[in-house]
Every structure is written in structure tokens, then in C-alpha cells.
Amino acid sequence: MKNCLLLAPLLLAGCLVNLPTANIPMHTREHLAIAWQPSYAAAQAEAARVGKPMLVVLGAGEKDGAVCLGADYLRSSALADARVIEQINRDLVPVWINIRTTSLPPWPFVKDVLVTATIDGENRVNDNFSRAFFFRSLMISADGSTLYNPGAKTVNEAAKQLIVYGTWTFEANEPGEYLGMLKHGMESSALLSVP
User: Fold this and answer.
1) Which residues of 99-136 are buried (b: 16+ CB within 10 A; e: fewer)?
2) C-alpha dist (Å) from residue 157 to 107, 112, 154
3) Which of 62, 71, 126, 132 has the CB geometry, 3.0–4.6 Å to 120, for a possible disulfide?
């Protein structure tokens, strides 16, 4: 909760100065120890092959280059934690999608995940605020049809979750929160796969 309160002025500053192309250089490298797949298609194929869910990280920028403020915070906090890296590499098939350059897959739940972010005709996130501060971590079935870590579908529901639980829906960024999100998603995927 404390980090959310500290982050509020940064979010407001981003709105006021309109940071459509905020680019934060990579200053940590720990997240590169995650076994990232080169593309969503490769992650789907690997997830189907090994029978594991995918972890899809959506960020405004590249995993190994300049990113927006939100994605930088994620990769230098939760994704830099050794426990998080170990669990991702053991239990999931991870892929990073740059929302600035890559079309989102045709997920049936895409609007729920984006909440207020908008997409263009090429299925890329295109509003200025989201391109300057955006990250989502999604646990998805190999076929892309099921979201294992569903969350709030509206801004009001997300705000309520922030007040009650101290975290945003798909934007866990502290190692403990992220591990909790991974645990919940793994439990959901196991329950959903039982006939």
C-alpha cells in the first residue's frame, strides 16, 4: 500500500506532462535470468508442449531495453527477485510483449485486462498514458482462451481492490505480491484443468 501511495505523484506527473514515449533505460539485469520465449507464438507452442500455463508480461517497451516507468518498476522489483525468477522458470512459460510495437493476441478477455487502456486498429495499446506507464502480468492457458489470474474489470473495481487489498489487479510489482499472484494463478489453473 505504501508503494502505491508513493507512486501516485509519479502517475499524476505522467498525466500532467503527457509522457507518450517515456523511455527508462535498463538499469537492472536480473529479470533477464527469466527464460523468456522470443514471441507469443513460441510461448504458446512451448506451453502446449510442456503442459504449463504462460506468464505474459505486457509492457510499454522491451524487456532488455528502454521501457515506460511502470514496466521498469516491474522488472527492477518483482522480476528481479530470485524467488520470483525461480518460480516463473519452474512453473510457467514466460513471454514479454511490447505493447508499443506488438499487436495483442485475440484474447476473449483482452478488454477486461486493459481496463481503461485503448487499442488501435492493429490491436496495439495506443493511448498516451498507457504508453508512458503500463504493465500487466497475465497467467494464461496455452491456447490463450483462459485467464488464470482474473481481476477487476473496471476502474472502480480496481480502486476498491487497491483499498481493500493494497494492490492493483494485474499490476503486482513487489516480490511478495507477485509471488501471491503467481500462487493464486497456479491454483486456478490446476482447478480449471481438473475434468
Assistant:
1) bbebebeebeeeebbbbebebeeeebbbeebbbbbbbb
2) 21, 11, 5
3) 126
88, 34 contact by CB (below 8 A): yes
Query: In order of start, what are the domains of the chain with their CATH numbers?
Result: 2-193 (3.40.30.10)
Number of Cβ atoms within 10 Å of the Cβ of 160: 12
Asked if 61 and 100 touch (Cβ cutoff 8 Å), the reply is yes
**pLDDT per residue rounded down to tens, the chain (195 residues):** 444 444 444 443 343 334 445 677 777 889 999 999 999 999 999 999 999 999 999 998 999 998 888 889 899 999 999 999 999 999 999 999 999 899 999 999 988 888 778 888 888 888 777 767 788 899 999 999 999 987 766 566 666 655 555 555 566 788 988 888 888 888 888 877 655
Report CA-CA distances (Å) from 174 to 35, 68, 73, 148, 166.
20, 17, 9, 19, 11
Residue 53 carries which side chain, given as an amino acid letter? P
The answer to whether the beta carbons of residues 85 and 79 sit under 8 Å apart is yes
The DSSP 8-state label assigned to residue 125 in this structure reads B
- Residue 159, CA atoms < 13 Å, CB-side half-sphere: 5
